[in-house]
Amino acid sequence: MLAAKLTTILNIHLTANQAKQTHACIIINGLNSLKPLLVRQILLSTRNSSRRISQYVHNILYHLPHPDSFSWGWAIRYFSQQGQFKEALYLYVQMQRQGSCPSTFAVSSALRAYARTTHKMGGMSIHAESYKYGFSNCVYVQTALVDLYSKLGDMNTAQKVFDELAEKNVVSWNSILSGHLKSGNLMEAQRVFDQISKKDVISWNSMISGYAKIGDMDRACALFQQMPEKNYSSWNALISGYINCGDMKSAWRFFDTMPARNSVSWITMITGYSKCGDVDSASKLFDQIAKKDLLTFNAMISCFAQNSQPRKALQLFGEMLKAYANIQPDQMTLASVVSACSQLGDMRFASWIESYVNDLGTDIDDQLATALLDLYAKCGSVDKACELFHGLNKKDVVAYSAMISGCGINGKVGDAIKLFDMMVDAQIHPNLATFTGLLTACNHAGLVEEGYRFFSSMKDHGLVPSIDHYAIMVDLLGRAGRLQDAYELIKSMPMQPHSGVWGALLLACSVHNNVELGEIAAEHCFALETNATAYYSLLANIYSSAGRWDDVRRLRKLWKENKLVKLSGCSWTEST
DNA sequence: CTAGGGTTAG
């Protein structure tokens, strides 16, 4: 009687609280057989995941003597779709420990989790199992396998599984298509694309963004025009293609003519402007957004953080918390906020963020961990940074670069160089930021030869040194007293040196008392910087230590005429 | 009763 009533209840939509009440009722009356339905209802009633729900579902499954494959399937599917891959895979393992036979639902969900985390061994073991359980004729499982190997970059195996598929559908085709696109085989991708008889929106969009990513905007645009039905993503793919080519004008033209925009359209444009350093345009665009959500806030906050406007980033974060109480920050938000804090050298936030993250119940992903690592390293806690670094699932360029520069700042040049070697061994390509950290480390320790070697090796990695790299090198050579070498390096620069470059030489000349080069450097500094007080005093020091008092007097006069006021020194660290 | 594919911020 009661069981029948509860069954009815469990078949209608329930809120989280109603589900809990029903759960209590089930426990009191010992109606274990209803728990599968309950699991389904709970997972259906929750839109966004949280640690609480996962704990709740865990508890139910844990207390069932023999959870059925139905409940396992629901739970694993749920976490896999929510992007909580660790949870999903943990449940999958639990299921096998209990001796339950996996369903095709559980298997395909688990495969999705392994594919998204690019976990080769895990995925391959499920592949083996799928033969054992006789799932090799299930199109869902096989397609998930095609996707797995595509994401792993193993196109041979992907193709093999794909060929074995008796009945391929669009999803299967799209999976193999995305594999070819990911491995950069545009020819093969185009061939596959042409073979798809029933192309859907995803087939078209994949192909468009494939061409857009390699900068072949003509082909991308042609396909875009050909496509029968476009959605937001079609437009967004084309727009981000133009942005990647640095063609903001065309990007804007398409953005402007879009019939309607979604959040991704807005953030694509905002981050486009952000990459060009055009914070004003990004900001203007952001103000136009009628419905601001987490995505758009994140894009704008990270725009500020990336363009050295940490205060504005933090300010916007504050506005978001205040005015949009219903928006919960995620790892992305926090990563930007942490990055802003580390730019300000503000340690107060680090511990606050940690407790905040714990309160929210979201786990720290690699991106957030990398941002925290950077913060700790910049604030002098190398050990803590190291701990975070080793805990990363995947160490990418950003992580290595942050760690290298962290070691450099804290006087661990040896470790910085070791990390760099490790990184190259791991086939991770260093970028400009990596070399900034590395050269700074060498500079810090006065390792001229090593620094010079790394600087020269940049071109071997396909990198063109930026003006800042030259500035570090000039500083490094200069401090070591190799003033002439530093001067030659400046003269060899392919771009116009800024005041930082000449300033570094001037400083070195002041340390090593070189009047001749000092004058040249100072002259350039005066020309480049309106507020040149510091440079005047440096040159004055050079003159006075050379005993050239006439020149000192001449300079003082010049200084007064320009009505320059000596600035008081200030720390780059935020004052508390 | 549920599953597999693309687009997106540091």
Automatic annotation (TrEMBL):
PPR repeat positions: 68-102, 169-199, 200-234, 262-296, 396-430, 431-465
Keyword set includes Glycoprotein: no
Gene Ontology molecular-function annotations: RNA binding
Key words of the record: Repeat
GO biological process, one term: RNA modification
Domain of life of the source: Eukaryota
Protein name: Pentacotripeptide-repeat region of PRORP domain-containing protein
Source organism of the structure: Salix viminalis (Common osier)
Source organism phylogeny: Eukaryota, Viridiplantae, Streptophyta, Embryophyta, Tracheophyta
